[in-house]
Amino acid sequence: MESLPHSWSFGFLPDGRILTAQKAGEMRIVGKDGRITEVAGVPRVDARGQGGLLDLAPSPRFAEDRLVFFSFAEPRDPGNGTSVGRARLVEDGGRARLEDVRVIFRQEPSWNNNMHFGSRLVFDDAGRLYITVGERSDAAARGQAQDLGSGLGKVFRIEADGAIPKDNPFVGQPGKVPSIWSYGHRNLQSAALDARGRLWTVEHGPRGGDELNRPEAGKNYGWPLVTYGAEYSGNRVGRGLTQREGTEQPVYYWDPVIAPSGLAIYRGALFPEWRGAMIVGGLVSQGVVVLRMADDRVATEERIPLSARIRDVREGPDGAVYALTERDKGGSRILRLAPRP
After folding, report:
1. Mapping DSSP to helix (H, G, I), strand (E, B) and coil, where does residue 65 land?
2. Backbone angles phi, psi at 90, to 5 degrees
3. pTM for the model
4. Distance CA 21, CA 7 (A)
5. Are 286 and 305 in contact (CB under 8 A)?
6. Ranges for the Glucose/Sorbosone dehydrogenase domain (predicted)?
7. Can you spell out the DSSP letters for 75-92?
8. Which entry of 6, 116, 185, 204 is annotated as an active-site residue?
9. 11-25 burial: b if 16+ Cβ within 10 Å, else e
10. What is the pLDDT of residue 327?
């Protein structure tokens, strides 16, 4: 599929069409015939640097409620931050628009830069929403990934209306943000739910140290106290620790990095050998990385080169794997991966 402006994410609608999010703050629907319909009513985004319109997720009940959820770098005064909105997708007369737009989550505090917004959105089997964000990169900000009173460097879990689930790990604890699910994360741009309803994420390391994790309620995943990467300068991060009591080890890590963005856990029939595998988009590795799992550990890693930066990965309703490409100053394509005839 050609001719999309620089895009960040996509999702399948129940009728097989594809809803796409463009970094500049636009949405488009791609029909089965390739026809593209622009969606009006997207709120303003801060598209500088790594910001923009980020992930999107049609409601699990989209056929009934027509709701679309999306994360974005929200302009604020001062600074900006990752926020999540929801809106109703209305289509009539060959046109499409968002109505009843409402922000249901805001990462706080705001920060004044253009880096490490995350973000991915994943619904669990009960219709609750996981939200991944970044720690905003700056040395002055990154330590807040360890601060349970801050929204930087976290995975959150909320209800679809923005309410806080009563069984979240920090509910009722003074000084702690009740929407936090897990903490100690750097910049999460890959997340998916497995067949058992468990969340998996892949996050960017610095120079080395991209991590596959299975975030559990209330646990600390270490950043910036613990990492298998180094500063971009080559210097160690903090004390240079790779393990520390009270922090979780990654399930798997990469050095050098793949620069992960997008994750699908395959359940289809077209690739029986991939069933249950993690399929990760790679920006630097320019392809998809297939991780076959055994007992929640990586058994094998396979790389499928696509000669393009891969920003998002999804399993389609036909069982094929779809990958979204990006060029920093150009357009995007959606590639369909299927077995050779």
Report:
1. helix
2. -110, 135
3. 0.97
4. 6
5. yes
6. 5-330
7. E-SSSEEEEEEEEEEEEE
8. 116
9. bbbeeeebbbbbbeb
10. 83
